[in-house]
Every structure is written in C-alpha cells, then in structure tokens.
Design goal:
There is one protein chain. By secondary structure, the protein is an alpha/beta fold. Helices cover 42% and strands 18% of the residues. The chain has an 18-stranded mixed sheet. Strands 22, 23, 24, 25, 26, 27 and 28 form a 7-stranded mixed sheet that branches. Strand 12 and strand 13 form a beta hairpin. Helix 9 runs parallel beside helix 10.
Length: 1382
C-alpha cells in the first residue's frame, strides 16, 4: 500500500514529465481505477492510476503525448505497462507516436486490455513500423485469432522484436497457423510463449520452427475449463532439446514430418505420448533423413510391434542417433528382434548396419521379450561392435537361465560398458550370480551392472559383483607373460613333396597316409590298375595337404603342384626360420604316365636340380642358416622297370654327384627310395623314414612356447564349433584368447592392451612359423585351413586371366577393377567355389592378400588409390621383332650381365622379377629428373626410355639366375653407365635377398645387335676381373689394354666373330680412373714397404686428386641425385684435368714411379733367392709354391693347414728380374700335409704370398701365370694388402723378410733386427724341408729336377750367383749364364 502523502494528482505527473526532473525507466498505467492518482514506485519508475471518468481518460491521452514529446524520456524510458485499458483509435495513435519518438522503449506489457478491430489494425501497423521494441506481452487481452493474425502479419516485416508472449488467450488453430507462417519468414524472434485453451495451437508453431531450423525458444501451454495448466511442447535451442508433453496423433505426425531435415534438435523426448504405427511410419523417414538427432526417448509411448519395426527400419540408414529409449512400451519378441537387427551382424563378412547407436533401453511389464527376443539379444551382444549401454527394465518374461545366457554372451564383447537390468524378475539364483562372476573374470571392459530392484539385490549377492567390478577398474602390475612362459618341443612337422607334374606326388601322399593308418584296405594293391587312368586325367591344383597323427606328433604332407603356373605359390609357402620341416623330391622314372619311355640320367638330374636350387635359394632368402634343409629323393613308377639297366645305374651315380655338389647347402639323405607310389606296401620303408626324420627334426629345431601347442587344440575346437570355418578374424582371435587363454587375457580395463595385443601377435606369428596357421599382421585374419586357402583361393588366383579387361594397361589395373575380376573369376571358374570363398573373405581381403604374398604389387605403396601390377597377366612378347628404337653411328651400346655368384646352387626365385618391375618403375618416376621417361613391361622384360637412354632389363636363364641390362644411348659411355650404377643396378641388388649377383660386362656387339641370350653366354667378362687385369699389366700397357672375345656359332653357322674391345671402351671414365687411383695407392703403399723415398719430379704426378684428402662422396642413385651431383662432378673433373692433362700423361707418371719400385723389388727378391748360398751350393731351387687341384682346375694354396690333401709342389723360374711360373710343369704330388710340414712351411708361405702380392700390384713378371690359379685374385690381394695382415703381427713378420735386403745394404741396427734373424731361421727351415722332401720323392739330382720342374741349374757369368731357370731363358739368355750340372 502506498501512503496518502506519496500520492499525487495527474497534473503533477504531467508537470513532472514536462520538467524532465525525473529519469524514468518504467511507467505503468492502471485504468478503470476508483480515483486518478500517481506515485513513484521507485526512483526510476512511475505508476499512474486513471479512473473511468471522461476527464481522466483525456489526461491518459495527454500523458501519452507528453511522454512522447519529453526529451529526457525519449532516451531513458525502457518499459511501458498497460492494465485494463480499452484502446480507442486516437489513443493507440498517441501510443504509436510515442513509440516512434521513444526508440529506447524495449518492453511493452498489455494485461487485460481490450482492442476493437480498428485498434488491432492500428496496433499491427504500429508493430510493423517499430524498430526499437524487443518484447511484447499480451495477457488476457482477447486478441483472438484476428489479433494473432494481424500481429503475425506485422512481424513478417518487423526486424526488432525478439520476444512475444500471448497468455491466457484463445488464438485458435487459425491464429496459430498465422503465427507459423510468420515464423517461416521472421528470423529475429527468439522467444515465443503461448498459453492457449487448446493444445492444437502448439502443432503449427513448433512444426514451423523445426521445419525452418529456427533457433527460437518455444513454450506452448494449455489450460481451460478449470483444468490445471500444463505444458504441451518445449524447445530450448541452447541445449537443442525438444520435449513434447501432450499432442494428439495427427499433431505428432506433423511434428515428425518437420523433423526430417531439421538440424537444430539434438534431443527428442516424447515420453508418455500415445503413439501408433502411423506416427512410427513417419518417424522412420525422420531417422533416414535427419543427421543431427543424437538422443531419442520414446519411453511409455505404447508402441507395439509394428511401430517398433518402423523405428528399426529407420535405424538401418541412420548414422547420427546415439541413444534410444523404448522402455515401457507394448511390443513383443518380434519387436525386439527387429529393433536389434541394425546393430547386429549375422555373418563374418557382413558389416554392422548401424555403428553410431551407443545406448539402447527397452523392456517393461507389458513388453514380452520371449524366445525370439532373447535370441536377438544374444546375437546382438555376440556380434555388436558399437553399443556401450544396454538397459532391460522391469522384465517379467525372461527366466534366470535366459539371463545367464545373456551374461554368457558377453564373453567376447569388448564394447559394452554399462548393463542395466533394474527391476527384472529373472535376475536371481546361483546360476545367474555364478555366470556374472565368470564373465567379469574374462571381460574387464564392463564398468557397471545395474541390478537395482532385482531378486539378486534383495538376496544381498550384488555386493560381490560390485566388488569385482571395482577390481577390474584398478591398475594391475605389469608382467612379461612371455618371459616366464615354458618352452617345449614342437609337435607338428611339415613335409613338402616337390616334383614336376605327373611325378606321382599326390599318389605317394595318399599311399603314405594309408600306410600310417591303422586300418588297411585289403584289396588296395589289387585295384592299382584302376588308379592309372585317373592319375593321368587329374592333376593336383594349388597345394594339397594331408595330415597324419602319430601319437603326440602331427605330420602334415604338403603336395606342391608341379605345373609351372603354380611355381609362384611355392615361394609363398616356404617354411620360415626355425620351422620344423623337410623336403621330399619326387621324380618319375618315366617321361609320361601312359608310356614306357624311361627318363635318362640327364632328365632326372634336371628334375632334381630345379628343386634343390629352389630349396637352397629360399632357405637363404628366409634366413634359415642354423640348420640345413633336409632333403630326401624318391623315384616313383619303379614297378614298371622289369630288370635293372645301365640307365638306372647312371641315375644313381647322378644323384650321388648331386649329393656331393650340394654338400654344405642341404642335408641329403643317403638312401634314394624307389617305390610304386600306388601301393601302400611299397612305401613302407619310406613311411618309416618319414616318421623317424620328423621326430629327429622336431628335436633339433628351436623350442616353442608351450602355449602354442595348447592354442593349436583351441583353434581346432573353434573350427569344430563353427562349421569348419577356414578363416578366423583377428578380433575373433583376440576374443578367443580372452576367453580360453588366461596368459593372453586383458585382466583390467586399464591394462596396457597394446602390450597384450603384441603378445598375441607374437604367438600368432609363432603359429605361422610352425605352419599351423597363415598369419600376416596387415591382413587382419588367420587362415586355419591351408588346403582351402592354397587350393580354392590361391590356386585360382595364380591362374587369374584378366587379359580381356579393357581397363588393364601395361599390366596395371585399379584396385576396384581387380576386385571385380576376382569376384568374376572365383565365382565362375569352378561352380560352388566362389560362394565358399566369399563366405569367409571379401574381394578387398583377397587384394590385400595378393599384395602381401607378392602376387600383385602397388605402383605407389601406401596410396589406397594406387594402380596394381599383376605379373601373371603380362605377355612374354615372343615373336615381336627385337630392335632398338634409335640407331646410328653416334649411338653408344652398353651392357651389364648380373649373374648369381653361385648359380650352380641358387637362382632368383619366381617372385623376384615382378618386384623389380614395380620397384624400378617407382625409382624412375619418383625422380624429378625423369624428363618424360617411358616405361613398359613384358613378362620377363622391362624397357625404359629416359633422357635419350633406352634401356632393356631382361630376366634370363632357364631358372632365372641372371639379369641382363642393355642400353642404347645418345649420351656418352660414362653418362650411360652412371644410370646403370646409380639407379638400375642398386635397385636390382636391393631385391636379391640372400643371393649375391656379380657384375659382368657384356660384349657391345651383342647389345648393338640384340643377340639372343643363348648366344651371349660366353660374351661377358666380370668387371672386377677386367679391372684386375688392367692392374696386373705394366703401366705403359694400361691405356691400350684390350679384351678379346671368342667367336660363337650355332651348328656350324657363325653367329659372332672373334673380336676385341679396348678396356677404356668397356669401362666408364669413372671406372678407369678408379683403376688408376687404385694403382697409385698400391704403388704408394709398396713404396712405403720397400722404403723408396719420394722424389719431386715436375713431369710426374705423385698425388692424384681425391685419393686421400677428399672423402668418397656418394651420389644418391636416382636421377634427382644425378642432377644434383653434376656440378660437383664437373668441378672434380676440372681439378683432375688441370693436374693431369689426360690419361696417357697420368699413366706415364705411374710408369716412371713403377719402374723404380720394380728395380727395388727385384733387388730384394734376388737377395732372397741367393742369400746363404753356402747351403748345399743351391742344389735345389729356392722359390716354390703349392697348388691344389679341384675339378680339373688349379688353385694356388695361400695358407697351410694340417690334413690338407691332393697338393702339388711347383717351382718358379728364378732368372733375375724375370721370375715367372713355368708352364706345363709336372711338379711333385703331396698326399697329405702333416703338422711338421705346417710348422716348417707356414712362415715361408706368408713371405712368399707377400712377395707375390707386391709383384701383382706392379705387374712384375713374378706374377705371370698366378692369375690363372687364383679365381678371385682381387679378393686374395685385398686380404693380404688392405687387411691387418700387412700392418699387424703377421705383417711385421713378412716385412721383416724385406728388411733382410736393407741389412745387406746397410749394417746399421734397425728396429726389427731380431725379427730378421728369425726370418733367416724360417727360410733355412723351409729350404731344409724342401731338400728332405725332394730326396723322399727321389728328385735330388739335376736330371730329376729338369724332368719334374723344367728347371736347369746355372751360374751368372757376371756375379757368379747360382739360379734355377727354365728352358726359354736357357736359350735367350745363353750368353749371360753357364749351366752348372748337379
């Protein structure tokens, strides 16, 4: 109540407003009052009461005019409130004028006002023009549908009003429709509140807001006829939540339609609304179209099966909803089945339709889950990969056995975190409790289980459940499970049956299996003749596998198909490091199964040789070096041989030679089995050998984790329980480990799962090495059925025929096109096979597998859109004319022949060349300097054109043991060879795992004419041998050194004539300068050893640039690297050209330097030959050496070892400064070297090899003939000169021998004098041994020495020294010597 003293009359209000003494923010008018008065409610607010008399009403209009004209109120007035005003048109106009002048007014409130039609129209016009009012409240003002329509019309253009509230008025559906049309246009209105007598008002308004994606807060209330006011709908944009409290069915359908493309609602709550299938049908479209809805609550909406089916159908396409509540509805098990279908999988290859739904709740007393619903729940929990929350509320239809099965299905579920079963009557009893505890033991990912209001909670057993949940949430101490895991002997061994087609491998496997079997077929041998036609008609495709259980040992026999198209598979299946396996090479004694033409020994050798090389090459590639591969040979069809023959004897001798040849590479079983593969009785000894060898190998191979043997049985049981499925996905393998293998189990959800995952992968890889599974980490699955995989899958892939596909270009195809090809081939090639393959694997899986197994290759590794090369579809190109794209006298022709260093035992495996085709292409096109390079492929050929250089890379040899690189170039020789050395050859070498390739120079004429490979076999020389040959000649002969080529003919028809090429034409400038630098370095070291001082000579170059001061700079072997290195190379060449004008001048300097060294060397050699001449007056030669004969080739012995046999002693011609090897010298044979001989000869041998090394380095005559005895001369020389021998203890001993000459020249004491006396003693001992040995050989007279060694004892006429010289020197030097017979 306001005190009377505070009341003022209206005149005071008028005068006060005019005087602008008050800073008014708010003015409230109250009409229909008993008396007129006014008062200040607060400092800034004024209340004005106006009575109903005429004068007071005039004062009301006057007040509106004064307020509008007052300057101060135009800026300060914020709020106007009118109560019980009956608006007339003039008064409204005054209000209109006031609002136009007072732009600061934000809020206008009308309570219990009355508007006539003209007034509403004026009010609408006022609202349309106003740009300042933000909020209008109309409460009980009776505007009706007309007023609502006019207001809506005004708000279509008004851009300032943000809030509109219409309370306790009946605007009706028509007025609501007008408001909805306004909402479709107006974008500034932020809040709309309507309290109407009918809930139908809400439908058009909320529908318009949702359809137009308006961020408008909506509150619609209803209340009439004494009813309690209740909310109908509520939408709050801040939290994107739409809550519908009360709507009829048609209204609900309209709202659902508006939600289809809405993007503002994230949460929809329709709890308690009665919904039917008609609404659910509309809502299905919402779920299919809407992409922002995250949470849906349809609890207690009375939905039945049909309605839930519609909702579930929408979930198939929905990718946004994360939470769905359907508890308290009336659907049955059919509804549950449909509801869970989108989040379930029914096949290993099927993708889950909906992966965004994370939480689902259903149930209730009226929900009858039943048997169908239970089955759907179990399927979902077993296969779902996204659901984290599941709630089943107040269920009364499931029993305790049903809930036990639900918990049991959680064994392999790693995604569910929360499970709520509150109020479910079936959650009771010991069975459910025990199952829960068991599941929590193997499933640590469940964080909470809500058992509120269940009988289990009532009984007090839930405390233990919650305690276990708490334990699963704690961090467990780390433990290295594999470190302490026990090891054991493996129990499975693989036997690989290798051989050409029709060898009888499959029949031998079957007979061996029958022999192992306890139940024999009594009449098997009587029906042998029936097998023969079948054997001829049916050949093994892919790889067939037979398994034998022998007590605790398992032997699996792998029958490798002998057809050439399957050879690529053999590399893939080769046993890895440490695998228990051995090989049986099967060869038929007959050429064809149906005839009686026997194979000769050469054909048998060819059969066996391929497989022996295959085994050796792959064992080196697999790193299998700790144990040699075990090989057994079986000859089949022995029953057709009626009597022994010379051919059979020759075959036995051939196999014996192969055994000796491959000694040290394979462990060859000495017995060759000759069998009738069709008769189990004939293979008895072989079966016994199989069993015995398997046991032996299992004891010799590394031990494996005991867990592996357990897992083998677990995987076998899993296949039995899963309809013999051949493939186990990696996730399923993890689930299996979690359930069945405690040591590979994640024990807490906070465990380091990546470490457990690593242990599982280690075990899976071990099983792969053992041959129990096929597992590659990149593929994501394990192959459990080898025969299915090798036969039905790989057997069809290797025969893939994609040549007709128009999209394939140069062997390359897109990934998607390859998937289509695989689907077509595997489904149409063999009826029934395709469907079985694609039940377990997808086409994309097959492509990944082909990439891993190198059956195809990525052009751009790591790029998912990369083209793929399929080697099997490349053509061989036979019949195409072979010629260069360019020709002319200016063209340079260069060739390099890369051959397996040990081609007699190894070759390049079938997968090598396809890898090279892809890798080389990537190298060429990955270079920035490609300049329009072209690249094309054939089956065994790569052709490249780059920067004017045309290159052919050919795979050659019957077994692929060499690569030829040919080039025709418009560039010079050096540039062309740089492309070889920096790009092509390094790429080839990088792919030869375990196989060493030696580089040879091809004859240029062969390259120019593209001579067929069969004629090029003798037309190459090793690069190192040519370099060594240049190093072995005197300096003045190096520049003009030439290599001679032998002629080639075919059946008397000449193919290639004999010819020669200069070494400087065969080698690049870089290679030739390398030879000169090596020669300089050798001479430098020799000068140091021989104590020859340097002398300054202006005419010679005593230091070559880059030999010592400049480090060896490597250029990146790509065209980018070549481009970057051009400037640096040119600078280095300029330095060389400045100091050495040309190669001839450089060689001239070397010649002078070399001449001085030769003089010094021969002086010291002569001293060694002639020192201590008193010993038996030189009755025997001094300089001797030993040769070992191996396969008709002589090899110089460089080291003496006790027990050596088949040695032959030879003597050198000792003529001064021309010491050399005597040709056709018989020598003396030594049966065996004993310890005494070793003791006497080793010091001498070291000194002799030192002398030989020096001579070889400078081309002295003492080296003549030695190169023929040392096949790898460069290696021997490098070993002696560049290793520690020259500077270490042994080197000191050798150097001391040379110090003798220095002592002879100077008597001054030098370091090493004691060593020198030791050297003299060593030489005396060796010479005395030689004298005694020759006496034992009855070779002590001059005649005997002439006969065996071709040496005569002479005396030099000038010095009187004794020497032993050859016949040639006896004639040409007769005037210098005199013969002195012994």
């Amino acid at each position: 109540m306001v005190s009377n003293q505070n009341l003022r009359d209206l005149q005071w209000a008028l005068s006060t407003i005019r005087s602008e003494s008050l800073n008014l923010h708010s003015i409230s008018f109250y009409l229909s009052q008993p008396t007129s008065c006014c008062y200040k409610e607060t400092e800034n607010s004024l209340n004005i009461n106006i009575s109903t008399d005429k004068e007071s009403l005039q004062n009301f209009s006057q007040l509106l005019i004064v307020i509008g004209s007052a300057t101060r109120t135009q800026t300060s007035l914020k709020n106007l409130e009118f109560q019980r005003v009956e608006w007339e048109l003039p008064t409204l106009r005054n209000l209109h004028a006031l609002l136009e002048k007072n732009s600061s007014v934000n809020q206008i409130v009308f309570r219990r006002n009355k508007f006539n039609a003209e007034g509403l129209l004026e009010f609408s016009e006022m609202l349309r023009r106003n740009k300042g009012v933000k909020e209008i409240i109309l409460s009980e003002s009776g505007i009706g549908c007309l007023g609502a329509g006019l207001i809506a019309s005004a708000l279509r253009t008004n851009e300032s009003l943000e809030e509109l509230q219409i309370w306790e008025d009946s605007i009706g559906s028509k007025g609501a429709e007008e408001l909805s049309k306004m909402i479709e246009i107006n974008t500034t209105l932020k809040l709309l509140i309507v309290l109407d007598s009918n809930s139908i008002t809400a439908t058009p308004v909320i529908s318009a807001v949702l359809a137009r994606n308006r961020a408008m807060e909506i509150h619609i209330w209803t209340g009439d006829n004494g009813e309690k006011t209740s909310k109908v709908v509520e939408f709050v944009p801040e939290n994107s939540a739409l809550r519908i409290y009360k709507l009829d069915l048609s209204s609900s359908c309209r709202v659902a339609c508006a939600l289809g493309w809405n993007s503002t609602v994230r949460s929809l709550d329709m709890t308690g609304i009665r919904l039917k299938s008609k609404w659910a049908k509309e809502f299905r479209s919402v779920l299919e179209q809407n992409s922002t809805l995250k949470e849906i609550n349809l609890s207690k909406t009375l939905l039945k099966d049909k309605g839930v089916v519609y909702v579930a159908a929408g979930l198939f396409k929905n990718q946004s909803v994360e939470t769905l509540h359907l508890d308290g509805n009336w659907f049955s098990g059919i509804g549950v089945e449909h509801l869970l279908c989108p989040i379930s999988r029914f096949s290993a290859l099927q993708n889950q339709a909906n992966i965004t739904l994370k939480s689902v709740t259903f149930g209730g007393r009226r929900t009858k889950i039943g048997r169908d619903g239970l089955a759907a729940i179990l399927q979902m929990l077993t296969t779902n990969q996204s659901l984290t929350r599941l709630g089943i509320y107040d269920d009364e239809s499931l029993g305790q056995e049903d809930f036990a099965r639900i918990f049991k299905s959680l064994e392999r579920n790693a995604t569910l975190r929360f499970l709520s079963l509150q109020g479910c009557k079936g959650v009771k009893g010991e069975l459910v409790f025990k199952t829960i505890m068991e599941i929590l033991q193997v499933n640590p990912w469940i964080e909470d289980i809500d058992l509120t209001r269940t009988p289990l909670q009532v009984s007090g057993k839930t405390e233990e459940v919650y305690q276990k949940l708490g334990q699963n949430g704690k961090m467990k101490p780390e433990a290295d499970v594999l470190k302490d895991m026990p090891l054991t002997v493996p129990k499975s061994c693989r036997v690989f049956f290798c051989g050409q087609e029709f060898a009888g491998k499959t029949t031998l496997c079957n007979s061996t299996l029958q022999n192992f079997s306890s139940s024999k077929v009594p009449y098997l041998d009587h029906v042998k003749t029936l097998v023969n036609p079948v054997e001829q008609a049916v050949r093994t495709t892919g790889i067939k596998i037979k398994t034998i259980k022998d007590k605790e040992m398992k032997i699996s026999m792998w029958d490798l198909a002998g057809q050439h198209e399957y050879y690529a598979l053999h590399d893939l299946m080769f046993p890895g490091h440490g695998s228990a396996s051995f090989f049986v090479i099967v060869s038929s004694l007959f050429r064809k199964p149906h005839n009686r033409e026997q194979k000769n020994s050469s054909e048998i050798e060819e059969d066996l040789l391929y497989w022996l090389r295959f085994i050796v090459s792959n064992s080196r590639r697999a790193g299998q070096l700790f144990m040699l591969p075990n090989v057994t040979v079986v000859l089949t069809h022995y029953d057709r041989i009626t009597q022994p023959s010379e051919n059979l004897h020759a075959i036995v001798l051939t196999i014996q030679r192969l055994r000796e040849r491959f000694q040290g590479f394979v462990e060859f079983y000495p017995t060759v089995f000759t069998v009738d593969a069709r008769a189990s009785g004939s293979v008895g000894k072989f079966s016994h050998h199989l069993r015995k060898t398997s046991k032996t190998i299992l004891e010799r191979v590394p031990r494996v984790y005991e867990l592996c043997n357990d897992l083998i049985q677990i995987l076998s049981d899993w296949r039995s329980d899963n309809y013999k499925k051949p493939v186990l996905r990696w996730n399923d393998f993890g689930d299996l480990c979690q359930v069945k293998v405690p040591s590979l189990r994640i024990r807490s959800r906070h465990d380091h799962s990546d470490k457990v995952e690593m242990r599982r992968r280690v075990i899976a890889n071990t099983l792969h090495q053992l041959g129990e599974v096929i597992f590659f980490e990149e593929l994501g699955f394990l192959i459990l059925d080898f025969e299915w995989f090798c036969g039905d899958v790989l057997g069809q892939i290797v025969k893939l025929d994609a040549r007709r596909q128009s999209s394939i270009e140069n062997g390359f195809v897109t990934r998607k096109e390859l998937e289509n090809i695989l689907r077509g081939s595997l489904q149409s090639s063999i009826p029934g096979i395709g469907s079985k393959v694609f039940e377990s694997l997808e086409a994309s899986d097959l492509v990944k597998m082909m990439l891993k197994l190198e059956l195809c290759y990525e052009q751009d590794p790591g790029n998912p859109n990369s083209l793929l090369l399929i080697p099997s579809i490349l053509q061989e190109g036979r019949g195409n004319t072979q010629k260069w794209q360019i020709s002319g006298p200016e063209c340079v022709y260069v060739g390099r022949h890369l051959e397996c260093e040990d081609s007699s035992h190894m070759f390049l495996t079938p997968g090598f060349f396809p890898r090279l085709q892809v890798n080389l292409r990537n190298k060429v096109f990955g270079s920035k300097a490609q300049h329009g390079a072209t690249y094309s492929l054939e089956k065994y050929l790569i052709t490249i054109s780059i920067n004017g250089i045309f290159v052919r890379v050919e795979l050659g040899g019957q077994m692929g043991y060499y690569i030829d690189v040919l080039a025709c170039s418009t560039k010079n020789l050096t540039e062309t060879l740089r492309l070889f050395s920096q790009l092509i050859i390094p790429t080839i070498q990088s792919l030869c795992h375990g196989v060493t390739l030696t580089e040879n120079i091809l004859r240029p004429d062969c390259v120019r004419n593209l001579t067929p490979p069969r004629y090029r076999r003798t037309q190459f020389i090793p690069v190192q041998r040519l370099k060594q040959a240049i190093l072995s000649v005197p300096a003045d002969s190096m520049y003009d050194y030439q290599h001679t080529w032998v002629p080639v003919s075919d059946g008397g028809r000449p193919i290639l004539k004999s010819g020669f090429d200069l070494a400087r034409v065969l080698l690049s400038d870089d290679d030739f300068r390398e030879v000169l630098h090596r020669r300089y370095n050798d001479l430098y070291h020799l000068a140091t050893e021989l104590a020859v001082p340097f002398e300054s000579n202006p005419d010679e170059s005593t230091h070559l640039p880059g030999t010592q001061d400049e480090p060896n700079r490597r250029i990146d072997p790509t065209f980018d690297g070549i481009a970057k290195g051009v400037e640096e190379v040119l600078q280095r060449l300029k330095i060389i050209e400045r100091e050495i004008r040309d190669l001839k001048q450089e060689i001239q300097g070397l010649r002078y330097y070399e001449h001085r060294l030769i003089i010094e060397l021969h002086r010291k050699v002569n001293y060694l030959v002639n020192y201590n001449t008193q010993i038996e007056e030189r009755r025997v030669p001094n300089m001797f050496y030993f040769v070992q004969t191996d396969n008709y080739a002589r090899k110089l012995v460089t080291n003496m070892i006790s027990g050596m046999t088949a040695l032959r002693l030879h003597m050198l011609c000792e003529f001064r400064q021309e010491m050399h090897v005597v040709e056709d010298q018989i020598g003396c044979e030594m049966m065996q070297i004993d310890n005494i001989s070793v003791k006497c000869l080793v010091p001498y041998m070291k000194k002799f090899m030192k002398l030989l090394t020096f001579a070889l380095k400078i081309g002295a005559h003492v080296a003549v003939g030695m190169g023929e005895m040392i096949p790898d001369l460069s290696r021997e020389v490098a070993h002696l000169v560049d290793s520690s021998l020259i500077y270490g203890a042994a080197g000191a001993t050798a150097a001391a021998a040379l110090a003798i000459g220095n002592r002879h020249k100077s008597r001054t004491r030098i370091p090493g004098g004691e060593n020198s006396r030791d050297v003299q003693q060593d030489l005396r001992v060796a010479r005395q041994w030689l004298t005694d040995f020759l006496k034992d050989q009855n070779c002590s007279t001059g005649k005997d020495i002439v006969e065996k060694f071709g040496l005569w004892r002479v005396r030099y006429r000038d010095s009187g020294n004794i020497a032993w010289i050859c016949r040639r020197h006896m004639h040409i030097r007769a005037n210098e010597v005199t013969e002195v017979p012994v």
